[in-house]
Amino acid sequence: MEGVGGDGVAASAPLNQWRHDASRLFQFYLDKTTPHAVYRWIGIAVLASIYALRVYYVQGFYIITYGLGIYILNLLIGFLSPLVDPEMEPSDGPLLPTKGSDEFKPFIRRLPEFKFWYSITKAFCIAFVMTFFSMFDVPVFWPILLCYWIVLFVLTMKRQIVHMIKYKYVPFNIGKQKYIGKRSAAGSSGSRGD
């Protein structure tokens, strides 16, 4: 009875090994892209342009584009939201300052930038592949979808901006902030005539 089913396991072992090696190689190259945020986003802009050209050229797949837009809007909300929403759940960990006298606590996103980029990349790739299958080309009147998406975007962003103003957080940081102290005092103490 030892030989029963043994051939199936032996046959799947090389396939599992290949899948594991491919996964590790993919993760290796994905990890190498982590510090290159500007180039990653330029790549997404190129990918989005290719997708837009494909949809424009085919004159269809508007429902796929609408779904892609809703998904990206959902990711954007996660990217702009704090990890712990002060409105929903009080926490023992770091919270956003709500008053001017509160100490500074760094903004921690619910969806980190790398995961945001990676999710958008996967979404554009899947949507692009879907444009090659005619079963996904549902005939719709695209101006209605566009108007509905714009209204949804405006209302969602308005709510997010009101939340940001209410809890006084800014989800963007432009580089490391530098301390500009008393330069005259530092210069005068270093130039003593001793």
Question: What is the strand and helix layout of this fold?
Answer:
Elements: H1 6-32, H2 37-58, H3 62-80, H4 113-130, H5 142-167, H6 183-190
Helix pairs in contact: 2-4, 3-4, 3-5
Mean pLDDT: 81
- Count up the helices: 6
User: Regarding quaternary structure, how should these chains be classified?
Assistant: single chain
Determine the fraction of residues in helical runs and give it as a percent range.
55-70%
Task: Count the E strands.
Answer: 0
The rough form would be described as extended
What is the makeup of the main sheet?
Answer: none
User: What fraction of residues sit in β-strands?
Assistant: under 5%
Termini gap = 94 Å
Poorly predicted regions are none
Radius of gyration: 25 Å
Return the domain count. 1
| Alpha-beta content class | mainly alpha
How does this model look, in words?
This protein has 194 residues and is mainly alpha-helical. The chain has one domain. The chain contains six helices and no strands. The protein has helices at residues 6-32, 37-58, 62-80, 113-130, 142-167, 183-190. Helix 2 (37-58) runs parallel beside helix 4, helix 3 packs antiparallel against helix 4 (113-130) and helix 3 (62-80) runs parallel beside helix 5 (142-167). The longest helix has 27 residues, at 6-32. It is extended, with a radius of gyration of 25 Å. It starts with 5 loop residues before the first helix and ends with a helix.
